[in-house]
Amino acid sequence: MTSTAATAVLTTNERRRHLGFVAFIVISSLAFYKTLSALVKYSLHDASSSHIILIPLVAFFLLYVERQTVFLITRTNIGSGIGLALGGMILYWLAHRGPFPQDGNWPLFLETCSVILVWIGGFLACYGPLALRAGSFSLLFLLLMVPLPDVFLDRAIHALQEGSTEIAYLIFQAVGTPVVRHGFLLSVPGVTIEVAKECSSIRSSTALFVTCLLAAHLYLRTSWKVMLLALLSVPLSVIKNGIRIATLTLLSIYVDPDFLTGKLHREGGFVFFLVALLILWPVFWWLMKSDKRRGSVNSAA
């Protein structure tokens, strides 16, 4: 067989695999239509989960962008793929008939996990373990579309409230503004504010984490640096929200009381999101530069 003919055969095989995987995703999505539609509704109506509908689009786009690396070596592995997909189906069954709670968003949490297992099983069946390893980031990225059970979501929101209140309290003290704290209440001259659940900044915190995770994956090579950048987004989210709360409150005291209810309060989250990115930029730049220096040294060696 000539080189051109072999390439044509390989191309045909790759096309079959891609078509098979796309068909698998479409068919499984139809089979899980009830779960996926409930997930979309939940994402559209719950502020803490508005990112969910974008996650699968980003994950599959990453697979496409990195296709030359991910699909460099493919080999059908139907047995392992079916086994993983069956594990997902069993989890789906347990979501309603197992020992798990039927309230607090547990069923949707388990059902979404099962859908992801089935999708990854289909990927493994079509492309094999080497491609699964090469595309592991994109496939594991799908886990971000899993909605947290209410018990864990409430704890996360409570932690953000605690941290944001403390940061705002420290800022008031640092600028010399008299402040009294009682739980999530901060009393300053002329106004008392409450850092309520709606002020926890769970949505922008999630967006910051996803942004840092994607930036780290695309621009950093070392695993611990990727994890470091992603994890730094968590305390930075708290700091960013504390700055937001303190800034709006100080503006309402010294400039105009309407700042607490005005446009900056309702729609200014993006401004403080950019502030958080600016704070994180020097760390990201240093990690990126150190990765490049390490790559240059390894090339020279």
Give the gist of this structure:
The chain is mostly helical. The protein is built from 13 helices and three strands.
What's the pLDDT, averaged over the residues?
88
**Structural class designation:** mainly alpha
Number of strands: 3
Please give the count of helices: 13
- Helix/strand order: HHHHHHHHHEEEHHHH
- Report how far apart the termini are: 39 Å
**Biggest pleated-sheet summary:** 3 strands, antiparallel
What are its keywords?
single chain; 301 residues; mainly alpha; 2 domains; three-stranded antiparallel beta sheet; 3 strands; 4% strand; disordered C terminus
Describe the protein in words.
The chain is mainly α and 301 residues long. Helices cover 74% and strands 4% of the residues. The protein contains 13 helices and three strands; from the N terminus they run αααααααααβββαααα. The protein has a three-stranded antiparallel sheet with strand order 1-2-3, covered by helices on one side. The longest helix has 32 residues, at 223-254. Mean pLDDT is 88; it is low at 297-301.
Topology:
Elements: H1 3-31, H2 33-45, H3 55-65, H4 67-70, H5 78-97, H6 106-127, H7 129-134, H8 136-141, H9 150-174, E1 180-182, E2 185-188, E3 191-194, H10 202-219, H11 223-254, H12 263-267, H13 269-300
Antiparallel strand pairs: 1-2, 2-3
Helix pairs in contact: 1-6, 5-6, 9-11, 10-11, 10-13, 11-13
